[in-house]
């Protein structure tokens, strides 16, 4: 009875957003890429919030519940899911295109196209269209990038937002995932996740 009560309490807190759901974490996010349903980049939206530290008011990244972001290291670390820095999400490093940023964007793009293409929701398809059409080499000529150079130089994590629904992409994509998995489905998911993660590191080792 105690375990059942604790389990129910955990899910109640998770639904309120007071704690992260299993497999999720609280990530710090500074900006959102605003896309239309065709995957066109319309704007970069600041997401920082003002907080008081003593007598000072400082803008800090917004805390959002997102899929787990495990610690990564090395020059060829794998991308995060639906949230990352400009190197991965735009192919830009400190406002410029570099060999590393191109490599990061390629990894981010391939990973998300594979994961999101089967999902029939506007948010997933908009991101897929964006990644298939986005060319980092041409990015510096894009009017949205030109207008938001200061934001790009600030660094920080970015998420996606769909202009038509005014919602963050994760909200719509999450609805396509089943809320619960039976034991067989859990085993299949764990095996698939393991092999996919290993495959990412295999690619890195081959390049090294």
UniProtKB/TrEMBL annotation:
<dbReference type="Pfam" id="PF09709">
    <property type="entry name" value="Cas_Csd1"/>
</dbReference>
<protein>
    <submittedName>
        <fullName>CRISPR-associated protein Csd1</fullName>
    </submittedName>
</protein>
<dbReference type="InterPro" id="IPR010144">
    <property type="entry name" value="CRISPR-assoc_prot_Csd1-typ"/>
</dbReference>
């Amino acid at each position: 009875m105690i375990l059942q009560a604790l389990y129910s309490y955990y899910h109640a807190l998770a639904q309120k957003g007071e704690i992260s759901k299993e497999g999720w974490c609280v990530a710090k996010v500074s900006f959102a890429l605003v896309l239309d349903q065709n995957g066109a980049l319309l704007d970069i939206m600041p997401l920082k919030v003002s907080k008081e530290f003593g007598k000072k008011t400082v803008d800090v990244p917004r805390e959002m519940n997102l899929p787990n972001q495990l610690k990564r290291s090395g020059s060829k670390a794998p991308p995060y899911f639906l949230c990352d820095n400009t190197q991965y999400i735009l192919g830009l490093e400190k406002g410029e295109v570099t060999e590393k940023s191109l490599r990061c964007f390629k990894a981010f793009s391939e990973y998300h196209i594979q994961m999101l293409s089967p999902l029939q929701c506007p948010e997933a398809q908009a991101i897929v269209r964006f990644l298939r059409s986005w060319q980092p080499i041409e990015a510096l000529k894009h009017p949205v990038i030109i207008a938001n150079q200061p934001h790009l130089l600030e660094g920080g994590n970015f998420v996606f937002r769909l202009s038509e629904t005014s919602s963050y992409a994760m909200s719509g994509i999450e609805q396509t995932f089943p809320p619960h998995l039976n034991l067989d489905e859990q085993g299949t998911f764990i095996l698939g996740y393991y092999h996919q993660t290993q495959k990412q590191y295999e690619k890195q080792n081959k390049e090294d």
